[in-house]
Amino acid sequence: QVQLVESGGGLVQAGGSLRLSCAASGRTFSSGSMGWFRQAPGKEREFVAAVIMSVDSTSYGDSVKGRFTISKNNIKNTVYLQMNSLKPEDTAVYYCAADETRWIKTGPPRYWGQGTQVTVSS
Known about the structure:
Layout: E1 3-7, E2 10-13, E3 18-25, E4 33-39, E5 46-52, E6 57-60, E7 68-73, E8 78-83, E9 92-99, E10 111-112, E11 116-121
Parallel strand pairs: 2-11
Antiparallel strand pairs: 1-3, 3-8, 4-5, 4-9, 5-6, 7-8, 9-10, 9-11
């Protein structure tokens, strides 16, 4: 059974930082991609960032470029999202996503985590 377990969400003031982690179990994604999406109340799910696990190739949504950084640890089958200069509009549930073969930015990813809440206060 494949599981994606997110951690690291919470409440932070605007301008602050948080680091999310997503640990995958039950399958390796070394030939695929992993990353993050987010969904704010009343809005559609939005692509945040993704990485191709076999190479250091990354992609970011326009709203987070220059502020967020995705990284990976292939041995641990884990991806991280370092979020800096957080804004109130970054408030959302952040979901980890993964696929063994597909580029998850163009999706849809095969696997999803349960989500972790990130709240940025002004």
